[in-house]
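Researcher: Next entry: TFIID subunit TAF5 NTD2 domain-containing protein (Torulaspora globosa).
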Amino acid sequence: MAQNTPKQSQQQSSPSSSASQTPSSSGVGAQSARTNSNGQSSSQGQGVRPGGPFSASDLNRIVLEYLNKKGYHRTEAMLRAESGRTLTPQNKQSPANTRTGRLPDPRAMPPSAERNARPVSNPVPSKRDADDQTVVSVDQLRETTSPESYIRAFSLLRNWTDSSLEFYKPELLHIIYPIFIYLFLSLVPKSPLYARRFFDRFSPDFKISHGSEINRLFSVNSIDHIKENEVANAFQTNRYRVTISRTTLNLLLYFLNENEGVGGSLIISIINQHLEPNIVDRVTSKDTLADGIKIIESENGKSDITSEINSTVVKLGPFPKDEEFSKEVETELKIKDEQDKRQAQQDTSASDRKTLLQEYREMNNEPYNEANNTNTANASSVSAPNVKEEEEENNETKEGEEGDATKEKSDTSNIPPAPKAGEKKQTSQQQAGKVVAAVPKDAMMESPSISSLPLPAKTSLDLKLEIQKVKESRDAIRLDDLQLALPSVCMYTFHNTNRDMTCLEFSDDCRMAACGFQDSQIKIFSLDGSSLDSKLTETRRSGNKLISNEDTTATMIGHSGTVYSTSFSPDTRYLVSASEDKTVRLWSMDTYTSLVSYKGHNHPVWDVEFSPLGHYFATASHDHTARLWSCDHIYPLRIFAGHLNDVDCVSFHPNGCYVFTGSSDKTCRMWDITTGESVRLFLGLSAPVISTRVSPDGRWLSTGSEDGVINVWDIGTGKRLKQMRGHGKNAIYSLSYNKEGNVLISGGADHSVRVWDLKKATTESGAEPEEPFVGYAGDVTASINQDIKEYGRRRTVIPTNDLVASFYTKKTPVFKVKFTRSNLALAGGAFRD
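Model: Predicted structure:
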C-alpha cells in the first residue's frame, strides 16, 4: 500500500505543511484525515469543522499510532501520560489557530474568558474532570496512603541507588538514610506493625554508619515513644541537613518524578518537608562536616556550657626543659659529635649528616648556631637583644628549680592546688615571657610553667635516655612526601592465645611488648631477642610469682581479674596495668614483680597510660571517671568527673599537662592536670570513643570510634577538622602519629592497618596539601575491593580520599599500632583461629 512520504506531505496546502512540521494532537489528526485508504490526498480534510466526526480520544489514538509508526517512543510515552492525567470533555472546543487546520465557526459563541483564563495545573499524578477538579478513586487513594506503599517506595529507591554508578553512590547513600528515618517515623502512627517490618527490613543497611541511632530507634513503636525518644523527637522537630551535588540531586528528582505513581511522590514529600539540601557543585569533606540535625540545646544551657568550656585558655607548647639537665645533655652530645667527626674524616659518606647537637636543638625548636658550637654556655636560642632578659629569666628559673627540688625531695608529686580567680591572669602573663625560647612558630602555642608539674630530679639514666632519643631522631626515616615513600609496618602476630589476649603495648625503645590476658596474667616478650632475666635471686617475693618460661619471655601474676590495659614508662623501667579487679598495679621491669597496687576506682579499669614525662599515669574506668596517679602515692591526685557513661580510653598531651578521655557517651574531653577541670569538650561523634591520640606538636587530636570513623580535631578551637573513613564499620583500637605529625596510622577490628595523610582535605588554612603526583591515586580502590571480598558489598564503606595505604592481615585484629622515634610503624594483634 502506497503512503505519503515526507516530501509529498510538504506539497500540500500551507495548513497541512504547518501541521506536519509541528506534530500537535489536532494538527496531526487533521493531516491523517486528509489521507484516504488508498494513500491519496483528500480535500475533505481542509473542511473539517468544529463539529466534525473526530473526537478527542480518536485524535489521541491517531497521534499515538503515528508516533509509534515513526519511532517517536519517548514522545508517545509523554503523550500517553498527559492524556491519562487530563480528561477532555466531549464537544469541548478550544480556540482555533492556523496550525490546527480548523477555522472557528462564525455562528458559534465565543468561549468563556473566565474558564480559559484559569490555568490548568496538575501537580499530583491524578486525573481532572471538566471543572478542573481532581478525580481520585477510592482504590487509588487507598493505594497511595497504604502502609505497603512506604515499603514499596523505599525499596524502589534503595534498588535504584544500589544500581547507580559508583561516582554518585556515596551521595545517594548519604541522603537515603534520613529518608529511611522519616518514612519510619511517618509509618509508626499509621501502622506500628508495618513500621516494625519496615524497620527490621531496611535498618541493617545503616547499622554500620549510624549504628548508635538505629539502636536507639529500635524501641519506637507508637506516637508516645516518638515523643519520649530523644533521637526520634530530634528528627521530628528538625530538618536534616544533607550536602549533595547539583547533578546527583537532579538525577534523584528525575527518577522520583518518573516513578511518582509507585512511591516517588511519597519520597518527594519527605524531601520537601523534612530535608534541608545543601546544593553544591562538588561535595567535599569540609561541606559534609555540618550535615545532620543541629539539635537546639540552648534551653538546657548545654550550648552555652560547651562554648564556655572550649573558650578556656590552654597552653599547648612543649614542657620547658630543665636548664641544668639541658646543659649536661649538650655537653654529652658535643663529645659524641667530636667522635663522629673523627670517624667522618675516614668515612666520606657520613659527612653530610646532622650533628647530634643540631638535632637536639631542632627537637626543642631552638635555632642552631654553628659559630658558637664550641661554647656550651653561649649556645643560647635567644637572639642578642634578648640575652639580658634571658639571663634574668634563667636566674628566676634556677631559683624556682631549687625550690622545686627541695619540695620534690619530700614529695615529688605535690601538684599545686588550682589558683584563685584573681591569680590566673597574673600567672598567665608572667609565664608568657618565661617560655619565649621554647615557643614554636605559632604564637598561640604557649608553653606551661615548669613549676605547674613537679617532677623528680633527673638521673644518669635520664641522660642516657635523652641521648638515645636524639640519635634515633637523627636517623629517623623522613615521611614528608607520602606519594613517594610510605611508612614501613612491622606486624607482630601472637598465636595460641585461645582468644584470651585482651591488650598489647610496645615499649618506647621497641625492645619489649606487654600483653594482658583474661586469666589475669601479663606476659612480657623480648622483641630484639635480648634476655629478660630477673635481677632477683629468688623466684618468690612479696607473694608475687615470677615464672620464667624462656630467656625472652616472662609472665607476671598479681591481678585477680582480666587485664584490660598495660603501659610502659618512658624509661622502660616500669609497667602499669589496669584490671577488672578495680586496681592498677605498678610492675618493675628489672625484677618482673608487682611493686604497688593502686586502689580507688569502684568498678573495672578499662585503660591506663603513662605520662610522656614519666612519674604520672592516668586511668579510665567503668565508674564514669578518669583519675591521675603518681608512682609514689597510692591514692589518686586528681579525679576527672564529667562523663555520663564509661570512660573507655585515656591519653596524655605531649607536654604532660593535659589528659584526654574518650567515653561511651560519644564525647571526648580534655582535662587540665593543674586544676582538674575540663577545658575542652569535643561533641558531634556518632559512636563511643575507644581510642585517642595527640599529634607530636600538641595541636591536633585524633579520636577513633566503634563505628570505624576517625575524627581529627583542632585542640585550640575545639572544632573538628575532618572525618576519615576506611575501616568499614569496625572499631578502631589504636592510633599513632609519626614524628613529623603529618601521617596517622590506625589499627582496628577489621584485621588491617591503615595509613592516613592528614594534610588532605583539612579545613585548617595552615595545612596545605601536597602537589598531586602523576599516577598517584591513594588506596581507595584497593580498600574497596578488599572490603567487598571480606565483608560483602553491603557492609563495605567507601573510604575517604586521604587513605594512603592499607595493610591487611589474615585473621588478626590489630590491638596496637605505634610509631617509633625512627618513624618505623609497629603493629600487633592476636591471631583468631
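Model: Note for the record: The domain at 138-293 is CATH 1.25.40.500 (Serine Threonine Protein Phosphatase 5, Tetratricopeptide repeat).
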